[in-house]
Amino acid sequence: MNVAKLSITGLTESAPNLGDTLDSDYTTFQQYLLLMGHCLKHGLRAKKTFLVIADDPIKTLQMEPHRPGIPCDMAVRGQDSSIKESKTHVSQKLQPETVEDPSILEAVDGLRYLKGIACGHLSDVNLAATPSPSSKEWYLKVSGLSKKHGPVFTVHLGPWRHVVVLVGHKAVQEALGEQAEGFSGRGILATLDQTFDGHGVFFANGERWKQLRKFTMLALRDLGMGRREGEELMQAEVQRLVEAFQGTEGRPFDPSLLLAQATSNIVCLLLFGLRFSYEDEEFQAVVRAAGGTLLGISSPWGQTYEMFSWFLQPLPGPHTQLLRHLGTLAAFTAQQVQQHRGNLDTSGPARDLVDAFLLKMAQEEQNPSTEFTEKNLLMTVTYLLFAGTMTVGATVRYALLLLLKYPEVQKKVREELTRELQAGQAPSLGDRARLPYTDAVLHEAQRLLALVPMGIPHVVTRTTQFRGYTLPQGTEIFPLLGSVLHDPEVFEQPGEFNPGRFLDAEGRFKKPEAFLPYSLGKRICLGEGLARAELFLFFTAILQAFSLDSPCPPDALSLQPAVSGLFNIPPAFQLQVRPADHHPAVQTR
Ligand code: HEM
């Protein structure tokens, strides 16, 4: 067995100047660490900590109250029972005779942060510091481990969380694709679990998930997704966005908010039957809350929280801010649900997804084990609102950035659009087949960005054999989608922007099997159809209407994600749009 061993002992034992050896990246937690350091200094004395080592018994992080009675002391004590519970659970899973992991590794950064605190490293910390974009990328660290340990290995995220990591197309395909049922459980996202609590289609498991997934898919289809009505609805929003871009009259602007609002409006129409003006302040607050949530779960702090939520959750810190953002999204959803209740026509038809859910709830009123409950309604809709607001907008933004960076590609896209589309006609989904180069650029942008590089955690729903290993029921799985989209065995020089990899020798569009930004198997993104349609319509309409420019020379534009964690968040940039000399007035068909 290949075991990378590392143990850290004695938070209060001598570790001279350890703080000095911490990478500068760790200062990204300055604000949080200061708070934590304060708690440790005044309220807790850490006795000893151990990292889990492959076949050693799992050791506990023992905290001894130093000054009983202060809030963080009580909070840590309050965690005791859940710590014990999860310890037992994990110990059972990791019996060496049942799990023969190819390698067992530790993800240690979180403990290093804690160690830094205990060494008094924080005394001269700048409170105003915010998370820095140069923070180390969890995804790169974890995927990098595969160079030494192969495509399947276990990572210990803190003392009690053990995750089997799948790296590269083959491993992910074999697991999620070929053993779809066994790998179809949803794992933990510690940053969101407190809010969602296993409810709603994204976080549910078992029968609850099956029912919610089937219902949501059918409801979206009935509301016109994948049909002409749905396309018209999207085209109308695309046109509004084009008008808003026109309003900038060539001045540089950051397109993030407008793109997020436009894509959010599409999902708001489906969920609530409403579209909001881009100037609407409440709507802006909701969109910003979705952005704050994305940032919160993807930030370096969010990654540490995944490892140490059991310890960090009761303490003050950035997670309270994340909870506030989620609260804004959930409150908005609750308000919409309330309004729908007030004017629901029980004879149908449903005007939107909230109506459809309320009608289903009424139908199942007498069923004591129904999954169509208030909580599942709120949590399903809140997640859809979040996903619909943040994913497509971020991807279009990254595609636009690539076109600023590579003007020759922009030129070719615009030439193809001019050649293939009728003057004055808005692009429609039916045009996709005639626009292979444009489609290739869009796919390559999505591949390069790898919006969800870590994948979303899964669990195995039953004891599962995988590549000769026994994975007990409940084993957590991280299918690293970034490593699939950047698999060098499929995509030559995967870090380069090369739309040509999505074209065959005749210039026809081709999609490699490893193009899996939406994952695969039973949990494949439920919004894939919607996202694909939106991406195409927004991207083509913007390129048809404008030539894109940047106040910075292309060389000065960075393509590195601003934040890379659970999600890769594209960097901010300034865009200038000038009306294209063709297609002056665009009409929808
Ligand atoms: C570029 C856009 C998008 C990307 C790259 C994307 C990617 C993903 C990924 C990787 C997953 C996890 C799959 C897994 O567990 O293996 C997922 C799940 C999900 N996505 Fe998306 N997504 C996008 C847009 C959307 C949109 C627009 C919606 C809906 C409005 C949406 C709704 C969902 C839902 C509900 C799930 C959970 C499915 C389940 O657990 O059964 N996504 N998405």
Automatic annotation (TrEMBL):
- Membrane-topology descriptor: Peripheral membrane protein
Positions with a binding annotation for heme: C525
Compartments (UniProt record) = Endoplasmic reticulum membrane; Microsome membrane
Q: Name one GO biological process term.
A: xenobiotic metabolic process
Q: Which UniProt keywords apply?
A: Endoplasmic reticulum, Heme, Iron, Membrane, Metal-binding, Microsome, Monooxygenase, Oxidoreductase, Transmembrane, Transmembrane helix
- Which family does this protein fall into? Belongs to the cytochrome P450 family.
What is the name listed in the Swiss-Prot or TrEMBL entry for this protein? Cytochrome P450 2S1
Lineage of source species: Eukaryota, Metazoa, Chordata, Craniata, Vertebrata
